[in-house]
Design goal:
By secondary structure, this protein is an all-alpha fold. The chain has one domain. Helix content is 68%, strand content 0%. It contains four helices and no strands. The protein has helices at residues 4-24, 41-44, 47-81, 89-116. Helix 1 (4-24) packs antiparallel against helix 3 (47-81) and helix 3 runs antiparallel to helix 4. The longest helix is centred in the middle third of the chain and has 35 residues, at 47-81. It starts with a helix and ends in a 13-residue tail after the last helix.
């Protein structure tokens, strides 16, 4: 049994991390070897490959982070003000599952964009397909 406050704090932390990842993974000075994100051999080959995959995946990271952060803010409120809030385990798992699906979809979109990228594309290219 997970208390609503504990669940809210954990979800808020996860949401903040996903939002930070969405912002940091496309930062101009990003170092793929030290940054969280889509960490597969194709994206860690070069900084350009990293950016080509993370630019199209960024909205998915930001959406999942926002969803999780909002849930993290609402869960403690629900636990405090609902007459019979019940257990937070099932709703927490539901939010985590939806978050994971959004992040996985973003990863797939990013890897697909990287695969479609022309090898001759200039290093400063947008990486968008």
């Amino acid at each position: 049994m997970i208390p609503w406050l504990t669940s809210g704090l954990l979800l808020a932390a996860l949401g903040g991390f996903l939002l930070w990842t969405g912002q940091h993974s496309v930062h101009p000075g990003v170092r793929p070897d030290r940054s969280p994100g889509i960490r597969v051999p194709a994206t860690t080959e070069s900084r350009e490959a990293w950016l080509a995959a993370h630019r199209p995946a960024r909205p998915y990271f930001l959406a999942s982070g926002t969803l999780t952060l909002v849930a993290g803010a609402l869960f403690p409120a629900w636990g405090a003000f609902a007459t019979a809030p019940g257990d937070a385990t099932a709703p927490t798992l539901a939010v985590v599952a939806v978050t994971a699906l959004i992040v996985l979809l973003g990863g797939a979109v990013g890897l697909r964009a990287l695969a479609r990228r022309s090898p001759a594309e200039p290093l400063g290219g947008s990486g968008r397909a």
